Amino acid sequence: MNKDRHASASIVAVWISLISNILLTILKLVVGVLFKSPVLVADGFHNAGDVIATGAALTSMRISKRPADDDHPYGHGKAEVISSAIVALILGIAALYIAFEAVMAFFEEPAKASLLALLTAFISLIWKQALYIYTIRLGKLTNSKGLIATAYDHLADVYASLAAVLGIGLALIGDLYDIHFLAYGDPFAGIIVSGLVLKLAYDIGKEALDVLMEKNINQQRLDEFALLILTIPEVKRIDRLRAREHGHYILVDLRASVPGEMTIQEGHDVSRKIKQTIMEQHRDVDEVLIHLNPWYEDD
After folding, report:
1. Do residues 244 and 217 make contact, with C-beta atoms less than 8 angstroms apart?
2. pTM summary value
3. pLDDT at residue 83 in the model
């Protein structure tokens, strides 16, 4: 799949996510309010936040595909990372809101559980699980930070919907067999899901901040680059090798030593060979910046 098809597929995936979030928000809020289900109402507001997050992801992905220009010589890839940070923030707020609503529900008389509320939560569970699998596979294939963040947002909804199914199911069993404490299964599930959503928010936020702070990529990838560079016969030593993520692509920064008697043209040819070798083997590398140092036998 080439870059243009990657971009098109990613945009389609985000549009599907956006429309799904709008529909699920309406469904959960209507059913949750009508049947007084705290976990379903909280999950509905969580989905409303997802609509904003998905909209941000859609906007950022369009921006990130723009080519480099005079003001942004390294491209616009970090726009996706900013959207990931926004998703993390929205998830964090949603987690705190879900926890607050769940705790407050313990101080009120629990509402009678509803089969329709249970069915709504189950539909959301299946729907969001399918969306998660679809978007995480495509996100990893295209190395799209925005799409991966959207996928983890779907995963948070899977957790929330699973908790809702369990909570409402326990409440229904409590009504059926007159077990009063099971009626609080709904808010108890809300507390559990708030912790899971908060953990996801932390993980997404940390990754986004690492990219924004230009953290080096993992050592395994650097070792792979080093092995490829050393396959070039003219390269005698790697003096420094760094690489950072810039959204959905990687920028590599290299200092290497080559024989000092080489001409400028020969050095240029070696640089081009290094760049081609890395980019042919690693399609997510968009640029390789190379500085050549002179090397002599007595070095």
Report:
1. yes
2. 0.67
3. 78
